[in-house]
Write a structure and sequence with these properties.
The complex is a heterodimer of chains A (178) and B (334).
Chain A (H helix, E strand, L loop, with lengths): L5 H23 L3 H17 L10 H19 L26 H14 L2 H11 L5 H8 L3 H19 L13
Chain B lengths: L4 H12 L5 H11 L2 H17 L10 H30 L2 H4 L1 H8 L7 E5 L6 E4 L5 E4 L4 E5 L8 E12 L8 E4 L3 E5 L3 E6 L6 E7 L2 E5 L7 E3 L3 E5 L5 E5 L7 H4 L1 E8 H12 L2 E4 L8 E7 L3 H11 L3 E6 L2 E5 L8
Parallel strand pairs in B: 5-6, 15-18
Antiparallel strand pairs in B: 1-4, 2-3, 3-5, 4-5, 5-8, 6-7, 7-10, 8-9, 9-12, 10-11, 12-13, 14-16, 17-18
The chains are: A mainly alpha (178), B alpha+beta (334).
């Protein structure tokens, strides 16, 4: 589509994918200005490379991957600090009391809050694993850290989120095997 | 209960469908055979599922961003055209210069590098453009432009918000202000553009020179504006010209408001815009009264009190930024 009718096709693609591209970047770099700048470059670079795009590759997947690469390059070039290895205290706290049914909006806000509360490095590793489906080995390579560190950070993220979201978890129903 | 790290790592592999060793797999199954531990693993899995709904609370302004991209694409195209005309002119002497010149003419263009400046402080911000033109950017507004104009055959900026622009004349090279809704084109002049996100109308006021105003997506139509004119470009592309009677469009810059026999309803509009407030009349008929005054750097309440006194009305502050003029009469109706 891009090869034949350039600019109007590009506008349609932009409208379809811009928000999604912003979302990929914003999860990694929660800064509106930087996110929009990076997303802009993703589309502009695609436009300039439109003759080299391979047919058959999903545009959505291509843009998502390009956004991820640019966001990680941005972090690398801006020397993100990896200094938030604070000890986890009282991970076990806040055991779940009554499982009241929560409104979807309340749950959304809780997830938003808990993600925001994760330390920066921890959140980044978690985001790459959860939303970009990278393996621990891939995350380690992309961020230039050890697999062990990735495992630590994933564990830390899950434990923190488990504690924070505990009260919102749906009731478990177990079937006792005969 | 705290799940050990190696178990969490294995659980993650299982949820994400990644390969794991038979040894890890067996250890995980052994650990899960304890019902309490299995329940805790199930809870952790729920946490994993729930976080999938995380949006990263951010809704970008797609139109503005697309406008930016389209401008860079258009700039590429224009520069290609410039190169091509070079090519035609150079074609006749190409044989003399040889293959090197041919290669230079055909090499791919450098991408357009954009600079973006946002006026985030409480004060208007002065910005110099690469050609020496001056922009005063209203608080909260944003301006993008190419780092160099040399390669462009049009000088252009992208604007979100409000700016006062003094364009340096440049023989034959147009200057364009592009907003989400409209394009303003000039040769050399001073003018004010107001294109606030969320406001349907783009407003242009001319201080000197001549300006043309077009809808963003059909530049065949154009409205010519001269000093004292105010042009509106509506969201549907409709263009409209009125005489700018009260000349307060640039009050954000001068901090001066001048009213000469202006209907009070229009005075209120200027006050609301200038002071970022909401001002209502208890007696709507008062809006027809004529008003003459000059405010020079007055605070919000000083200005509103002055208006209230002129009509024998009472100023009531209803909440932060919300005011009401209660009562009042006037002799002279506009």
């Amino acid at each position: 589509m891009l090869r034949s009718d350039g600019e109007s096709a590009m506008a349609a693609i932009f409208r379809m994918y811009y928000s999604a591209v912003c979302q990929v970047v914003f999860r990694i770099i929660p800064d509106r200005g930087i996110t929009e700048d990076i997303a802009q470059e993703v589309f502009y670079a695609m436009w300039r490379r439109r003759d080299q795009l391979e047919a058959g590759v999903s545009l959505g997947a291509y843009l998502r991957r390009a956004a991820l690469n640019r966001a990680l390059n941005h972090l690398r070039d801006n020397k993100m600090r990896w200094d938030d290895d604070a000890e986890l205290l009282g991970v076990e706290g806040n055991e779940v009391g009554a499982h009241q049914s929560m409104e979807a909006e309340e749950l959304r806000i809780a997830i938003e809050q808990q993600m925001g509360l994760l330390p920066e490095k921890c959140r980044l590793v978690f985001v790459l694993s959860r939303f970009e489906f990278l393996s621990n080995q891939e995350i380690a390579t992309r961020l230039d850290i050890s697999v062990k560190t990735v495992e630590n950070q994933m564990t830390k993220a899950l434990r923190l989120l488990r504690r924070g979201l505990g009260p919102y978890l749906p009731l478990l129903i177990f079937f006792v095997p005969n | 209960m705290i799940i050990p790290e190696d178990i969490i790592v294995s659980l993650l592999c299982r949820w994400k469908g990644e390969a794991m060793t038979a040894e890890d797999s067996a250890r995980l199954d052994a650990w899960l055979s304890d019902p309490a531990q299995a329940e805790e693993a199930e809870r952790l899995c729920q946490v994993w599922e729930l976080t999938g709904n995380w949006s990263g609370d951010f809704t970008p302004d797609v139109d503005i961003a697309l406008g930016k991209l389209q401008w860079r694409m258009a700039a590429d195209r224009r520069r290609f055209r410039v190169r091509r005309s070079w090519f035609l002119a150079a074609a006749s002497i190409l044989l003399l210069l040889g293959f090197g010149a041919y290669q230079w003419l055909m090499q791919p263009e450098e991408p357009v590098a954009l600079r973006t400046i946002a006026a985030v402080s409480d004060e208007p911000m002065r910005v110099s453009l690469p050609d020496g033109s001056q922009v005063i950017l209203q608080e909260g507004s944003e301006l993008s432009f190419p780092e160099l104009y040399e390669a462009e055959d049009i000088r252009w900026v992208l604007l979100r918000g409000e700016a006062y622009i003094d364009v340096v004349p440049d023989a034959g090279r147009l200057f364009q202000v592009r907003t989400a809704g409209a394009v303003v084109q000039v040769l050399g002049t001073t003018f004010n553009v107001r294109a606030i996100s969320g406001e349907e109308v783009v407003e242009v006021t001319v201080a000197s020179g001549k300006v043309s105003l077009s809808p963003a997506y059909s530049q065949d139509e154009a409205l010519l504006l001269y000093p004292g004119d105010r042009g509106h470009c509506h969201a549907d592309g409709e263009l409209q010209k009125t005489k700018d009677e009260n000349l307060n469009a640039m009050s954000w810059l001068t901090n001066k408001l001048i009213f000469k026999n202006i209907a009070l309803s229009q005075v209120l509009e200027s006050l609301e815009r200038h002071y970022h407030i909401d001002l209502q009349l208890e007696r709507s008929a008062l809006g027809l009264c004529s008003y003459t005054a000059q405010f020079d750097g007055l605070s919000t309440e000083e200005a509103l009190q002055t208006v209230a006194l002129s009509f024998g009305a009472r100023l009531i502050r209803q909440s932060d930024g919300q005011y009401l003029l209660k009562g009042g009469t006037c002799q002279r109706v506009q």
